[in-house]
Amino acid sequence: MGKYVLKRIGLAVITAFIILSLTFILVKLLPFERPLGDDSKQIAYFDKQYSLGYVYRFDRPMPQYGEHLYRSPAVKGVSNYYYLVPVMEQYVNWLRNIITKWDWGCSKTFQPNVQASVIIMSRIGYSIRLNIISAVVSVPVGILLGIWAALKKNTMTDHIISTVVMIFISIPSFVLISFVLRIFCYNLGWLPSTWPADTASTAAKIKGYIIPVFCLSFGSVCGYCRFVRAELCEVMESDYLLLARTKGLTRRQAIVRHALKNAMVPIFPSILAEVISVLGGSMILESLYGIPGIGKLFILSLSYKDYDILFVDMAIFTTIDLLAGVVLDLSYGFIDPRIRMGAKK
Amino acid sequence: MASNEERSIQFRDDDFRLIQEDIRIMDTKLETKPTTFFKDALRRFCKNKSSVAGFFILAILILLTIIVPIVSPHNIDLVSSSEKFLAPKLFKTGTGFWDGTRAGKHIVYDADNEVPALSDKHSVESIRQALVSLTVEPDPTYIDNASTYGTGGVIVFATDAAVAGRDAFLQSKPAEFTNKGDYRVSIRFSDEENVSASKLGEYAVYLRYGEGPEDRIMIRDFSRDYSDIDFDITGAMNEQNLKNIYAQLVFDLRGTSDSFRYILLKSVEFTGGERAKNLEELEEIGFTDATDMINNGDPNSPGYWSCSGRKGIHNSEIYYCDYVIDTYMLVYGNADPRTYSATELSAWIENGWCEYDYKVGPESFVKLSDACPLDEVTDQTVLSVTKKLSSITGTSWNYRKLGYDKMPQFILGTDVSGFDLFKRSFAGLRTSLILGICTAAFCFCFGLLWGSVSGYFGGNVDLFMERFCDILGGVPWIVVMTLCILHLGNNFFTFFLALCLTGWMGTARRTRAQFYRFKGREYVLASRTLGATDMRLIQRHILPNSMGTIITSSVLMIPTTIFSEATLAYLNLGLQGLQAFGVMMSANQQYLGIYPNLVIFPAIIMSLMMISFNLFGNGLRDAFNPSLKGSE
pTM of this prediction? Predict the structure, then answer.
């Protein structure tokens, strides 16, 4: 078991390394954008890039480099000239910077010269908080609805729940957000139509959570419900449950002691993985509701063409995705004693 | 116990008759109908009512995406901003529901023209023509800012915040007063407190007729007395032996250093007796309506009061109204008269569209053809020198000018560019569908190939191919899409490429699993023993069995693609250069508050599409799933 865990984690780390390397190279191959901000900031940016080994520095124009030579603003009439280091060499330097200094690059245009890790840390809190709250809401509701539908299988209750779930699982998130905003913010005016500022009162902040949490959990509730219903229905038809009833257990006892426990085996890992994978935040929700999380950062860095930030943001999404996969695989083995992960025979 | 009693059994000859003596025994035909896998799947799919319903809705939507963009005559390429934001219209005007009208609640009422105050965009005549119903709120609302549609209120005249401690002046335009005109001035104040953060101030009123400090007739010296003033100007002039003065009324508000001061003025009216010459002029200089006075921003007009401090309005009366307006009449109506030149008219007459004789006048206009843009002539201009017609003024339906033969009708209304939302939605959906079908087709072919090779051969080939999938599959689709779009631009091909890059792995994985499932079965082994090649095994024995699941997953890729396109549009990475559904929806998102139809209708179409795709896909999956066979 221990060997399998190590192997699985090792594989994930290698995959992450390859993906991040490819992404880095592809991002660095994009056309260079000039830094924004006043002269001192631009000079600081170029100096930093030089010290990290991403650009060459010259004190005079080098005509052989043509238009790819970038001139920094003049200090006392003297300006330096910069030329991008070849991408593969940048890649090596980037690896070295991460290993030695944990330096993931810094913002160029969005918040000039602020470390990418600082920007991410200042925003990831909003996304994580929101997603944890919505997970806390949606997991129990989803599971309970699913159990209810499964126990009342092929009755009116089941049909209603299943139909509603099917409809809402099909509706794209931005459509749902539009409808919710229209009804609760514009028509009824009960809730704010944008994310409250950090300076807002606690009551306003709590109100501001309602719509995002609702929109985030709606999809997951439907997903969990459908999954739980399917699993539980399958377990309910199994032979051991029939045996449990025949040996004299009541329906309640049979369900609680046997059916639910067994149904949770596939359910629990996927819920865990789902919760981890939504930590990346919903980009559309964050942009439509103006939540300053890392999903919104993705859109902002795209519109500012701040590719270093974009890269770090994408790296986070990738890592979260891979992590969710690892957790999914490993938790199967931990929860279900029947599954011996990585066993040969 | 057992009795040994003997029994005799007798057999006769006909007990041993051959019952099949005359019948040739051979294979009989099966009594049930033979069926193939796909026929059986179809039969079971048809049993699933909701899936069939989903299929039909889907078929209707797909038919619409093909028909609507071809058949609909509306323009969705050239921006026509005069036609923007028309309301959805399905039924005739007046039915009250979905009839091209739009209701406004709590909108400022233009009391002069008796219409809602929308005249910054449309003329009063066209608003009046388009108005379906109008309810003015019975009670006025009092506001503290100057609205063009407000009346009454009081003027707040205050010392300037920028120069504390200095006096402020409010002065009228000068007018002539004589000692024979019985001129009077009456001034009304309000002494309401707590209008602003500052306090009521000490003021003086006088008539100034010269530059010198003594050249004035004092009406009220500095005081805090806010009672009414009725002052006899002529009487005061006689006292000071003045015959004829050219004077202006001045309010002098004393500034204090601690806080700002204000006074509240209701009205200033000049009157004159029988011998006053300039009564009309005097009437214009004073004011009875404080809001009008504040709104008068033209320093050259006689009613303008110059001010060295601040002047504002308090308790201006404004009425709000609820209305329902026909947006089509507003844009396409014939309320606005338009002027046409004589050359245009003569061209129409030559074409035989109408008749007109300028010597007779507007009554002689006869419309002969529908092609004539003019419906009625109201006025004409004849040049005085040559006695020839120079231009005519007439009314005509505005839609003619915009190139329609009759009043157009937009089922879902129009958007900010004046494009028909209905046509645009389906044109966008068509692009999305084509993208989805192309992607699904490619992923189906490539994934099938990859998955069957990986699944059939297994071993090291499988291991290598699986690792490759793991790495490529580990990249979130949004990252792949973003990188592709940043490198290759937002065109159709990039979207196709990026969606294929992420999409084929699902099919491949599914195919591989199916191959693993079927390749060890006995019938495959039997066929292999008989010497079948790999190709034959795959084609005849494994593939047909796994086809159902693979087809279902490929069909369900189409809605996923549509969804991806829309999601990217919301991230400002939308498809450019083609009508794209997501781009349209995300662009309309900003009008959710004012024109919800622009978002809601496309959202409904999108949801309907997704729901029916899912219903259809679920039915397909169940129908193709051999393990569910006979369980219904």
Answer: 0.78
